[in-house]
Every structure is written in C-alpha cells, then in structure tokens.
Amino acid sequence: MRRSSDAGPSIPLLSPSASPPLAYVDNVDEGASSFSSSSSASLYSYNTFSPSDHPLIDLMSSINTEEKGIKEAEAAGLDALPSYDATSRESDGAVFSHSTPVPTTAWGKFVDSFRPSEAYLANRKAQDSASSSGGYDMEAAARRTAESPLARRLKGRHLQMIAIGGSIGTGLFVNSGKALNNGGPASLLIAFAIIGAMLYTVVHALGELAVVLPVSGSFSAYSTRFIDPAWGFAMGWNYALQWLVVFPLELVAASITLNYWEVPVNNAVWITIFWVVIVAINFFGVKGYGEAEFVFSAIKVIAVIGFIILGVVIVCGGGPTGGYLGGRYWHDPGAFNNGFKGLCSVFVTAAFAFSGTELVGLAAAETANPRKTLPSAVKQVFWRITLFYIVALTLVGLIVPYNNPHLLGASSVDATSSPFVIAINNASIKGLPSVMNVVIMISVLSVGNSSIYGCSRTLACLADMGQAPRILGYIDKEGRPLVGVIITCVFGLLAYVSASPAEGTIFNWLLALSGLSSIFTWGSVCGAHILFRRAWEVQGHSLNELAFKSHAGVIGSYIGLLLNVLVLIAQFWIAVWPIGSTPNANDFFQAYLAAPVIIVFYIFWKVLYKTKFVKPSEADLVTGRREIDIPALIEELEEERVALKKRNVFYRVYKFWC
Asked: How far apart are CA 380 and CA 353, in angstroms?
C-alpha cells in the first residue's frame, strides 16, 4: 500500500473495486452499509482528491486488509489475528500493532461492542492534528459531524411515530390543566393554535435542512454552519441542558403518577425501576430507542383518539350522567381568564407541550435513507398538531370549566390535575380514569427516553464540532454515543432529590433552565433555514436540486422566527409582572433564566474564538450531503414528480399532507 503522502496526482474518489467513504454511504437496510458499483459509482466518479485530504481513506484500506486477514485466519482455523490500531501508521500506510482475540461468545461480542469505532478513532486523530493550528476550524468541524459513526438504523415507521407522538407527555396531558386555569378555554385554544402554526413552519424548515444535510447534531450544526459558530455553540449547549434537566423531572413525574392509586410504596423505589428501564432501552442503541418510541407513541396516539371520540360523546350528552354540555362553560365561567396576560401565560405552556417535536430532525443522522423517509415524517406533524392538540384541547375546554377546583394550584407532575382525567371523572365513567393515568405514565416515560437520546446526540455533536470536551464524542462500535448516554443517565439520579424537603425549589430552578430552550431552538432553525436558502441561491443552486422543500417556504420561516420572538416578548412581560403577584427577581429568573444563560454561552465563545457571522457565499453546502451527483438527483426527482402527476387527485392530496 502506498502512503498517502506519496500519492502524486489526485486519484478518483471511488473505483469499481474501492469502498465509498463513510460519510457518503447511504444505508438502506437496517443500517447496514450497502453500495452498488453499477448504480452508485457514477455518484462519485467525477469527484477527485488526494488521499491525504481524507483521513478515512487510509483507514478503510487498512480495514479491508484486516477483513482479508480475518478470512485467511478462519480458513486456517485460527481464533485470533492482529487487529488494526487506528492510532498507529507505518511507511506502508497502516500497521497492526497488537493482537486482540476475535470475540466468539455472546458476552465477548457484547463487551467488544463498547470499544471505540474505527471512524471515531480516525476523527479523533484528525481532530488532534488540527487542534495545533489554533482558532476555530469550522470546515473540519463540519466534516466531523458529517462523518459521525452514529448507527443508521431508524426506519420510516420509527420516524413517523416519533413525529406523530414522540414527545406527547405532561405538557399536553397535565400542564394543559394549569394553562386552562390561567387563561380559560379560548386562551388555551388560541395559544396552542399559534404555537402549532409556528411549529409547522419550524419542522418543515428543519425537514428541508435535514434531508439535504443529515448530519449529527442537526440544530446546533446548522446554526454553526449558516449563522455563527458562537450561536451554534450556545444553541447546542442550550438544547443539551434542556434534555439533561428534563430527564430527572420526568422520572419524578412518572413516580408521582402512581400516587393516583395510593400505592404504599416510597417514590424512590419507582424512580429506581423507571431509571433502570429507560437506561436499558438506550443501551440498546438507536434501534432500542426507535422501537420503544414506536410502541410508546402508538399507545399515546390510540389514547388521544379514544379521548376525542369519548369527548364528542360527553359534549353531546351521551355520557352516563347525560345532559348536553355544548359551549356551556364558554359562557359560565367564561372563555377567558386573566385577560390578555392570561393568554400570554399560556404561550410558554404550549411551547413546553410541543417541545421534542424537533427530535425528528435530530434523528435524520441515524436514519437509513432520510431522503425517502424524513419528508413523510415531517408532514405527519401537521396531523399531530391538528388532531392531538387542537381537537383534543377544544374538547377539554368544553368539558372542564377553568375554575374546576382540581385545576387550582395544578402541578406539572400531578396526574390528578390533568384535565383529561378530570373530564372522565366528571362524566362518572368508572375505571377509565385509571386507564388514562396509565397513558400519562407511559407518556412521561417516553419523554424521559427521548431526553437521553436528545442530550447524548447533542453532546456528541458538540464534541465533534470542537465545542465540548472530546470525550463526549466517544462513539462505540454499535454507533452509541456512550459517554453522552452515561452522563445523561447519571444526571437522572437527581430525581432522588424528590425525597428532600427542598425538592420544590431545586426542581423549579432546574425547570427554569429549560423553560425557554425550545423557543430559542425553534427560532434558530428558522434563522438557519432563511440563511441556507440565501446561500443556496448565491452559490448558484436551484430549488429543483432540493429533494424536499418546506411547504411554508422561506416566508414560513420568517413567520416562524417572528412568532418565536413575540413569544419571548410575551414571556418577558409575564416574568416581570407575573399573574397575581408583584414584580420580583425570583419569579423573573424562574421564568426567564434560559435567556441570560444562552447569552453568556454566546458571548463566551464569541470572545474566545472571535467568530464571525457566516457569509452566504462562504457557507458550506456540500459537507454531509449523501447525494452528490446533482444531475442524477435532479433527474430522479423529476421522474418522481412526473409519476405523481399521473396519479389521481386523492393520491396527490394524500402525498402532499402525508
């Protein structure tokens, strides 16, 4: 093998006998790498560069050599052979520096799966060599996020369920009760409709970005690449901290839901059981997370649809107690409570209820074929917003008056204050409130499961981009961001603080860190999409090259960004002049703590590396793209459009919305 430094002229990126670089492999079956020289060689044949420009080329050549050695060893009846050490290179381009037994038992394979992946070691070495240059290397950071060895094992059904019901939890089932009490049924409906419209534009913008650039980290990576590396740093840590503090909160919430049945068991026991279950799921990797979310989401979807049917029956007077309700509670006690301030107070509750919807974009980097599966998942968000939030909460406002005593002083973790449970109780339906409480508990566990996934992937992305300690980027042979998962799991042990007398104070301040995180994340997605479209145009690309285009377009992103800013302004007003209280520092920082924290993160990175805003003409639109043969991509997309036009109108409408 020739050394990369001796490779005179540039050579083709791929030849019929070569393997594709890891960053461009499009895994299409259970995350297993696949490549057809006949169909895919054309995608790469025009792209040439020197092997020294890509640290993975020598690595892959060495892996091929090692695979050949394995076959020879098996033929000779050997159980071990020299294994490749990515940290050592000799004159021939690679060296096998030590011998490691090939695991043959289930336990050996399990232990071996926690060892670092070769791609991680190669990225780490490249990062070590680049760190000596000083300053912030945005190009190298983009390359590492594109070449992340995260396992690509999520299927279309996983993404669709994550989009439809992945993060439905206490925000909808429990916190909506407090929102109903603060603002009344009309404020509840208006606020959720506005936040839902905003989120529709956000998710479509995110879908467009993620289909073009399915890189690890998603939101923070896009902010770094298209806005400013300092803002990407702030957004990445903002999002990681959000899920980091949500995990112990959801464990406590899940344990408290069991108090509904007055079980004589200490909550710490339930916290331990739930912690073990969620941690075990995430140690199965992204496939474990995807399958768990598929089941959890299916249960939540069935429960909400069932409640909607039941709610219609109750409103029409078909419940056991009878009596037509109609819009009675909109007249007495009324549609609004606390006036315009009550409406503004519901915005943050609505944002919290919708938080996690953006996980579908984060999962793009671990999806086998994002160009095919992600657009459909993004479109499902419309039905989630319309059906599970707007319709369900409309019925809640018709069945439960905002002055119901169970709503007064509603806690974010107390299932007895859930308007869904109250609605069923008011109808005197035996047994069904317990069923609804089980659904709430499953929803809480689902959000806890998502928190480990969201935090660990974001931490790994920050490490890849050089914005966090490198150890956080550790990814094992199964594609798990192992250190990020472990840190999130350990932080979940804070749930045991629920046994402390200071429980309320501690959790209020933890919640304050994540209160506005989603608003900043969504606003950044809209901003990144606007600047991406600007860079796309400036650099001579056409919209026909985009495999998926946001239904709302750039105008939708402007509207989404404006709505995010308006929500921040409304929340600032509520933070300074809270409902039923005078201005005080404690209430302000509990409502608005996330904002100064983000500003501090941004200024820190800005001053440290003196980063500049990214010019559209200089934005990186290439690194991380899986389809690089643009003419072939345009031709394929045109064929799909022509085929769609030939279908009947009902199918075309279905494909537009689903």
From this structure: 17
Single-letter code of the amino acid located at 489: C
| Interval 298-317: pLDDT, tens | 999 899 999 999 999 999 98
Q: What b-and-e string marks burial along 377-390, b requiring 16 or more CB atoms within 10 Å of the CB?
A: bbbbbbebbeebbe
Which residues pair with residue 100 across a beta bridge? 81
The structure tokens listed for 508 are 């209020």
Q: Are 221 and 544 in contact (CB under 8 A)?
A: no
Contacts 24+ apart (CB under 8 A), 301-304: 301/161, 301/164, 301/165, 301/388, 303/435, 303/436, 303/439, 304/165, 304/168, 304/387, 304/388, 304/392
Give the model confidence (pLDDT) of 231-255 as tens digits: 999 999 999 999 999 999 889 888 8
Q: CA distances (Å), 56 to each of 37, 258, 652, in order?
A: 19, 51, 43
Widest CA span in the chain: 87
DSSP 8-state assignment for residue 105: S
Cα distance between residue 118 and residue 3, in whole Å:
19
3-state secondary structure of 195: helix
3 state SS for 531-594: HHHHHHHHCCCCHHHCCCCCCCHHHHHHHHHHHHHHHHHHHHHHHHCCCCCCCCHHHHHHHHCH
In the prediction, which pLDDT does 86 show? Answer: 36
Helical (H) or strand (E) element with 48: strand 48-49
DSSP-derived secondary structure letter, 29? B
Model pLDDT for residues 74-92, shown as the tens digit of each residue: 444 444 434 333 333 333 3
DSSP, residue by residue, 51-70: GGG-HHHHHHHHHHHHHHHH
Q: Which residues contact 62 (CB under 8 A, 6 or more apart)?
A: 84, 86, 93, 94
- DSSP structural state of residue 476: B
User: What pLDDT is stored for residue 365 in this prediction?
Assistant: 83
**Could you give the CA distance from residue 280 to residue 455 in angstroms, rounded to a whole number?**
16
Query: Would you say 104 and 466 are in contact if contact means Cβ atoms under 8 Å apart?
Result: no
Q: What does pTM read for this prediction?
A: 0.81
Tell me if 109 sits within 8 A of 101, measured CB to CB.
no
How many CB atoms sit inside 10 A of residue 61's CB?
18
User: What is the C-alpha separation between 230 and 605, in angstroms, rounded?
Assistant: 5
DSSP-derived letter for residue 154 is B
Q: Strands 48-49 and 11-12, how do they pair? A: antiparallel
Residue 99: beta bridge partners?
A: 82
How many CB atoms lie under 10 A from the CB of residue 606? Answer: 17
Which is nearest to 224 in space by CA: 139, 100, 133, 310? 139
Q: What angle do CA 156, 197, 531 make, to 5 degrees?
A: 80
First to last CA, the chain: 50
CB within 8 Å of 189: residues ≥ 6 apart: 390, 393, 394, 397
**pLDDT the model gives residue 100:** 56
Residues near 415 by beta carbon (within 8 Å), at least 6 away in sequence = 173, 174, 256, 257, 260, 421, 437, 440, 441
Asked if residue 521 lies in contact with residue 239, where contact means CB atoms within 8 angstroms, the answer is yes
Answer positive or negative: Cα dihedral of 600, 605, 606, 612: negative
What residues of the chain score a pLDDT lower than 70?
Answer: 1-101, 128-135, 167, 408-416, 627-629
- Residue 151 contacts residue 478 (beta carbons within 8 Å): yes
- Which candidate, 157, 139, 84, places its Cα nearest to that of 117? 84
Stated as kind and residue range, the H or E segment containing 404 is none
> What span, in angstroms and rounded, lies between the C-alpha atoms of 557 and 128?
38
